[in-house]
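In this section we walk through a basic example: taking a raw amino acid sequence and producing a predicted 3D structure, encoded as discrete structure tokens. The instruction is simple. Fold the sequence below.
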Amino acid sequence: MVDTKKYEGIIPAFYACYDAEGKINPEGVRSLTRWFIAQGVKGLYVGGSSGECIYQSKEDRKIVLENVMAEAKGKLTIIAHVACNNTADSQELAAHAESLGVDAIASIPPIYFKLPPYAIAKYWNDISAAAPNTDFIIYNIPQLAGVALSVPLLKEMLKNPRCIGVKNSSMPTQDIQMWRDEGAIVFNGPDEQLISGLVMGATGGIGGTYGVMPGLYVKLFKLVKEGDLATALEIQNECCRIIYKMCSAHGNMYAVIKEILRKHHGIDCGSVRAPLAELIEADMPIVDECVAMIRAAEAKYC
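The resulting token sequence is shown next.
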């Protein structure tokens, strides 16, 4: 039986932490992990899109996960995204994650080449086989991966007893309902519709902007569970406005997020890894406005 309790709640997607030379900063990783523990979140999703995994080596990703686990093991639910664009590297990261004692591993489908569903299922099952004692979660993000999860593909994957669910980052909340009907645990992916995803049956949420304002999302989740959808919707709307403002900058959204973390919480994650766009001077007023918006929302709701 799957322990669904450990997946219920707010699970921020962990951010990449770099030093001044753009290398992984182990102490930065540990500091950010300790901060998340103090924020009362349920867990962390490590090595996904927000972690800039597509621009990191296997060794980078191992260092990040090792340092997260050194602080978080036994304190947070840890889901490690292990997908690379070939099976062997993905299996290596899956086995490494299991050796560290993560709660689950996750994987996007193979990208670039358009593979048939049976080949995607084999890729995922081969990854899962490399971590045979660990839960496996499908990461459905068709707008970036170029491949969308289907009901037949999910049914095939659920034949694997380690496959427990879907991190669903497609925009239609109907998808959450469909995956739930097949017996999968579903995590809401799009931060802008967390309240909708929870109402449609998502067990929890995994999000890229949760980490910059975790208190708001933790409160939103609590309110939904208590049935106070009106106040939860107010918080959702505030979060959306902040997200839209962050996305208006020249720099990549995660560059904006890291600067907000530095200014608002005193956490230094460095910048982003090329080719992601760094902040420019003209972005700083946007950062300051986001900080002010987050502080105001936190003061009102948290």
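Looking at the output, two observations stand out. The mean pLDDT is 97. DSSP finds twelve helices and eight strands in the chain. In the next section we compare this with other chains.
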